[in-house]
Structures
1.
Amino acid sequence: MERIMWYGSGKRLFKDLDQDYIRIFKELREGKIPELNGTGEKPDLRRLLIEYGKERIREEFTPDQALIKVASIRNALDEIINKYYEKCLPFSIPYRINTSGDPCQFFRNGSSIDDISTIFRKGSDLCDFRSQIDDSIRLRIREIMPNTTDLVGPKLAMDLLERSRGLKRLAFMPSSSIQMLGAEKALFQALGHGRKNPKYGVIFKFPGLSAINPKARGRIARIIANKVAIAARSDLLGTRIDTKSIREKIEDEIKKAKK
């Protein structure tokens, strides 16, 4: 039996290997053997694999993955702003700057003091940049996940997208897994120590869920997760559903649970 190498078999190369290597590598990954009628010297495997790797990254870097990266930058900005705020706090006493607990307001109050204005303006600029990113995220999440965003709001939709690591993964998740997104650590700790399992993760941020009786939260969280699963699958398929009536039904369940 003739042995098949990455470049072909014996002296015969895969047809158009030097130009059509991306298609050929994809076929090889799927277990298909491309046409064997090429001739000449076998191409540099390292160069072809580097280019193939770049192409695969481009294919995987879909709009939802790009948005997750933007959200991670926004989260990093939170850490930077809080750290910068801690370092600037000592100025509050000698310069009598109001410390309301809001770093951005603190920076804006201090930016009018000549001696330290530059330092505080930089902090204010960071806050403005974070606000710009927030606006961009709200816009993009609505474009990528319109049904889910209408159902649970842009912030929770973004949390679900981040936690699931992509729209496709979220859409393929069972509702029970969606319900637990964000509570994985607590779940494994509960399983390891024989405690009660948590009943919800980031879905707890759904408006009104925190205000109802704790005994009813698990049931309502399960209803929300079921509807999120439907909305995410519709987003993946590019179709629209009646999220308004679905959300109204969830809100009715929350109202009943408050009684």
2.
Amino acid sequence: MTKFTACKRANVDTLMIESAQDMLEAVEGETEEKVKLFALLGNEVRFKIVLLLLNVERVCVCDLADILKMNQSPISQHLRKLKDAGILENKREGMTIYYAIASSKKEKLTQLLRGEER
């Protein structure tokens, strides 16, 4: 049987509690977007794709299959999720579709992955 021990504190730091609540309210609009982004990048393959594309200009599914040592089909599914989320954009050249980080997301993703974003 687990013994539950309630939190007991000598003093309540109401200023800290109110400050923390205010801080969370201030970032409420950004929180949902970041949670979705972290959920999306919580998958190792999608994280690697984004990391790779932050360091190279563009890649096609064939390139990613060689780099990640995976079949093209699951990679395509990950690319679709990233594209649907607005993280990636693509451009067709002949029979090949190249993927890149959306220009509107590149700086924000770079900062976020380096831990610089606030």
